[in-house]
Write the structure tokens for this entry.
Amino acid sequence: LRPALLSQWMHGGHGGGGVLKNMGWAEHLMGRVACYGTVSTVIGRHTRNSSANFASCELRSLRHCRETPSEGKADERHLQESSRDESARRLVGYGVTFGSVGALSKLCEEGRLDEALQAVESMQQQGIRLSTNIVHCLLKACTRKKDLNAIRRLQVLIVGSEVDSAAGLHDHLIRLFASSGSLLEANRVFEKVAKPSVYTWSAIISANTKLGQGERALQLYHKMQQSNVKSNKYIYTAALKACTETADLTQGRLIHGQIVESEFKSDVVIGNTLIDMYAKCGSLEEARKVFDGLPNQNVVSWAAMIAGYAQSGNCRLAIQCLEDMKQHGLKPVDVIFTSILAACSHAGLVDEGCRYFKSMREEHDIIPSIEQYNCMVDLLGRAGHLNEAEDLLQTFQSDIIGWRSLLTACR
């Protein structure tokens, strides 16, 4: 199969007279490929006819092909055995050959990812080259569906093809495998990349961090540094989160030092991640120092600082931080109230907890979540207000955590 022949036919080469400049004929020719197996077979049939008679000859041939399918029996048996949809194959063949991914996109948008993959697999088996446009279309569909088997099939299509070395494809595969929960396959894709770019490093470090492999993420981070690849903000953020997960304050301080020397020292996202890392690793002084040093504290910055105080048992500081935040004109979000209510519960501050719980609806238009209701049940139970805690449990669809808190308080 030589796809270049189709281009020549489109533009009038080989005596075609430009007959295929009509895209309908181009699609028709790909349909003939589906019947006869290869472009060269169709071209061979044409060369035995004059260009002038091409249209009528092909119409008769197409009608004959539909009425007497035995002529393409071998190819039809292949289609039946592999459950290929012939119409999809014709459309995708048109897209692969002429650079249009409209037909393939339509299949993907309709949720027919399996048919789209089957169509591309069929065309690739016939020797038609895989284009980056086709691959990106399938990547988007796999991202939406998160079908692990479909991602594996897409990987098979890419490996060894002309697009295998295309920039960014391996990064996409790493993220796809990770988002589908297969960190092992994500790591395998990474290991086969000869010279990872900063984006490839970012993808694999983030994947290991998100899937709970903080130590592995930090190992990769140091390996990246040894390869003289300059870090970006996403890598710094993922590495700091890995330090938080592993409670590795030493590594966190080391990475913080590298950030200070970089162009990202004033980045708010990295600053918020640093606050969270220091607070969860038990160093509230360093967390507050980073917080105070931020050029602009956003809601996430305040939430991280409040959560740090709450988790360390500093309820009064958490409440003061919330009040300071409101003084700066920022509205608290629901996660902040979860931290405040949990802090009040552990400190036994019933009145303060009830006041902030009530203010969620009345002052901030926030509907309390099950988690916040459970915090209130725990608060009331710890303070010995068992009847009130039980009454509150009856007002919402509680999970096992709320009832467990009440039973624990009954001891």
